[in-house]
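Question: what's this shape?

___
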Amino acid sequence: MERKLEDTGDEKNETDGNRVIGSDSPDGVRMRKERWLRRDAEDIFFSYKVDSAYVCSEYEGYTPEAGNQLLVASVTLKNTFGEEIEMYDTDFQAQWGGSGEDDFSLPITFNGTEEGLATLTQEQLPGVYTMAKGESRTGLLIFEVPDGYQDFSISYMEAFDDDSTGDTFFVNFTAETR
């Protein structure tokens, strides 16, 4: 991918021809350590997009704690890496509101134990799964989130075998109410 410098008025910014990297651009895309994207994201391992999402008070018999609702998001993932990769539902987190310590949630299958909770339906992404090279998979990620929110992002941070981290990717969306 060819990158060049682009003069956006206030400063020169690196661009890949489609998006400005390192500053806010007119279309709302900001890239570098945090990448704000609208519908999908792609890193060196896989791409993901939020196909649809809704909030509800119960899902398949699971009821959230008082003051919370469930966010049910259908996501499509595609392995773009050159080999098989192991994935975890906890690779993703839902975020809302600001950037406070309590403004995010991991999927409901994560309960702080190694085993986690069982999935509620076969459509839900399991806690751990393997994706073959080039494989696409669509499934549900389910989160407990505070009542009253409908604007969310689902984020993913690159993590490498040497325990270093890379970029963080966000897909922003508004959930329907059911």
Q: What stands out?
A: Residues 1-38 have pLDDT under 50 and may be disordered. Residues 136 and 145 are 27 Å apart (CA to CA).
